[in-house]
Amino acid sequence: MVAKDWTLRATMSVERAFGTWARTVSGRMRGRERDQGAGFVEYAGLMILIAGIYTLIDQLGLDGKISQAIGDAVNDVIGG
């Protein structure tokens, strides 16, 4: 009987927590302040990602290989 009580309490606790979470998320999605401040964070993350890719390409010396591959592809397309 003790195991059933424990299982029931755990289930009810999870249900309450999920209900609270769902109300909070839906309130944030529909509320007046939805996505407030998200733009700056997203742009900053994108800039950090681009800077990391640029640094990686530069440090590995891939810039010449990439330029050559693009030039070869263009020549294949235009028949040069």
Tag the structure with descriptive keywords.
mainly alpha; 2 domains
What does the radius of gyration come to?
27 Å
How much of the sequence is in beta strands? Answer: under 5%
Largest sheet: none
Mean pLDDT value: 81
Distance linking N and C termini: 83 Å
In N-to-C order, the SSE pattern is HHH
Shape: elongated
Estimated helix fraction? over 70%
Structural class: mainly alpha
Overall strand count: 0
pLDDT < 50 runs, ≥5 residues: none
Short description:
It contains three helices and no strands. The chain has 80 residues and is mainly alpha-helical.
Please provide a written account of the structure.
The chain is mainly α and 80 residues long. It has 2 domains: 1-33; 37-80. Helix content is 85%, strand content 0%. It has 3 helices and no strands. It has helices spanning 2-30, 38-60, 63-78. The mean pLDDT is 81.
Topology summary:
Layout: H1 2-30, H2 38-60, H3 63-78
